[in-house]
Write a structure and sequence with these properties.
Number of strands: 12
Structural class: alpha/beta
Number of domains: 3
Low-confidence stretches: none
CATH architecture of the largest domain: 3-Layer(aba) Sandwich
Strand content: 5-15%
Order of helices and strands: HHHHHHHHHHEHEEEHEHEHEEHHEHEEE
Mean pLDDT: 95
CATH class of the largest domain: Alpha Beta
CATH superfamily of the largest domain: Vaccinia Virus protein VP39
Largest sheet: 8 strands, mixed
Helix content: 40-55%
Radius of gyration: 23 Å
CATH topology of the largest domain: Rossmann fold
Bound molecules: S-adenosylmethionine
Length: 435
């Protein structure tokens, strides 16, 4: 059926996240390799991804619209119908597809794929009503809050206050721009890439299109990296010719930055497949680093390093703009478990920093337990470490990214008028000379 395939692929992606609890990118990779997207045109693939991402981003609003039009909830066995309705509502209300095309394709999919369930009439009626009045109704809603799981909303309001929590949640509603890091001077690439140059040195383009087709990709001069993710490495200062240990390094955004700055990098990660991606990235960008497969909790270098970067595994709740599935996959228990891993890795990193050396800890999480909470507890355990506060001049003058303690705290609503940035936390710690 015409138009049916991208919609079916989108339903598969959404069900993988919401039912099988599979990360969206993993299912996308599977679909491109072995699933429905394999045989699809690039344009249809992009459409399928846009439907799925919109459905996940706007799930709270979509479910509110749906619930208001159903006399009773759909039974759990009708999950295909529920996901079809969710995706179609996302299309109608947020992607602005032609109602006739969306509705007739949805009804066609019910006929083809859900023979056991008599939902053709219901799907038709619900989508018709929403195409007539859904968008008007939405304007009255608190979209940011409605699309944010309660536990995250509570965490952000108690950490940042309600106004900022709302600004964070609103920053998650649209597709983010494409952020690019380059080898060398970003200003030289601005024109070729038709990009905005942010004060922190990241080049930013509107999203869409294939990164592989951009100038500088094939020659290895550029790589994709969110503006906030590019900040921690800058906090190490001049690393030219210095040894840097990059713990939890794959897929290597920060490794490439360090190598491009002339550091002698040793990059450690425990995941072989992710290390292989790091190796491929280094090859394309013609940058060098020594790669080590190992668990940073137990792996040890022959000698301690003057600089250690620990980009610890975290809940990734700072990346919801780019990964809307994270809001649907992560739960408070995951944060608690990750906090345990982070403190183990921080304690392990202590042994790898030489006296007088720097330990830079960072996470792409908005949750305070994984950021400042972790560092407070660390400093209480390790009296030989102290903070080296970060200055605005290290961040292109953006003083709003620095906390009262001198740590980095970016929020998705920062640089709002220029497209926002991921939520990142980083603390720069120095080990005392005399231990
Ligand atoms: C946030 S990602 C790192 C992103 C990377 N630094 C970059 O800039 O591209 C976290 C990484 O930590 C790795 N990891 C998790 N636990 C680890 C451990 N105990 N030892 C080593 N690596 C670990 C994961 O495999 C994952 O690649």
């Amino acid at each position: 059926m015409r138009g049916g395939l991208p919609r079916l692929a989108a339903i598969d992606l959404v069900e993988a996240v919401l039912i099988s609890k599979t990360p969206l990118d993993d299912r996308l990779a599977w679909s491109l390799d072995k699933g429905l997207m394999k045989a699809m045109e690039p344009r249809d693939r992009a459409f399928a991804r846009a439907i799925a991402a919109t459905c996940l981003r706007r799930l709270g609003q979509i479910d509110a619209l749906l619930a208001a039009r159903l006399e009773r909830p759909l039974p759990s066995a009708a999950h295909f119908i529920r996901t079809l309705l969710r995706c179609s509502i996302g299309e109608l209300v947020f992607l602005g597809t032609a109602p006739h095309a969306t509705i007739s394709t949805a009804v066609g999919l019910v006929k083809e794929h859900d023979k056991g369930f008599p939902y053709k009439g219901l799907v038709n009626a619900v989508l018709r009503r929403i195409s007539e009045d859904g968008a008007g109704e939405l304007r009255k809603e608190d979209a940011g809050k409605l699309n944010t799981p309660d536990w995250l909303w509570q965490s952000w309001t108690s950490t940042y206050g309600e106004k900022t929590a709302r600004a964070i949640a609103e920053a998650h509603l649209g597709e983010p721009p494409l952020d690019i890091s380059v080898k060398g001077d970003p200003a030289k690439w601005q024109e070729d890439l038709e990009a905005d140059l942010l004060p922190t040195g990241t080049l930013r383009r509107a999203g869409g299109g294939r990164i592989e087709d951009l100038p500088g990709f094939k020659s290895g001069a550029i790589w994709v990296q969110d503006a906030a993710a590019a900040l921690p490495v800058k906090l190490l200062g001049n690393v030219r010719g210095r040894k840097v240990l990059d713990l939890c390094a794959a897929p290597g955004g920060k490794t490439m930055q360090l190598a491009a700055l002339g550091a002698e990098v040793t990059a450690v990660d425990r995941a072989p497949k992710r290390l292989a991606r790091l190796s491929k990235n280094l090859k394309r960008t013609q940058l060098k680093a020594e790669l080590k497969e190992g668990d940073a909790a137990t792996w040890r270098p022959k000698a301690p390093f003057p600089f250690v970067l620990l980009d610890a595994p975290c809940s990734a709740t700072g990346t919801l703009r780019r990964h809307p599935d994270v809001a649907r996959l992560k739960k408070p228990d995951d944060v608690a478990a990750l906090c345990g891993t982070q403190s183990t890795l921080l304690d392990a990193a202590v042994e790898m920093v030489e006296p007088g050396g720097t330990l830079l800890y960072c996470v792409c999480s908005l949750e305070p337990q994984e950021g400042p909470g972790q560092i407070e507890a660390f400093l209480a355990r390790h009296r030989d470490f102290s903070r080296t506060p970060i200055g605005a001049e290290e961040l292109g003058g953006l003083a709003e990214l620095i906390t009262a303690d001198g740590d980095l705290r970016t929020l998705p609503c920062h640089l709002k008028d220029r497209g926002g940035m991921d939520g990142f936390y980083a603390a720069r710690l120095m080990r005392a000379e005399q231990v």
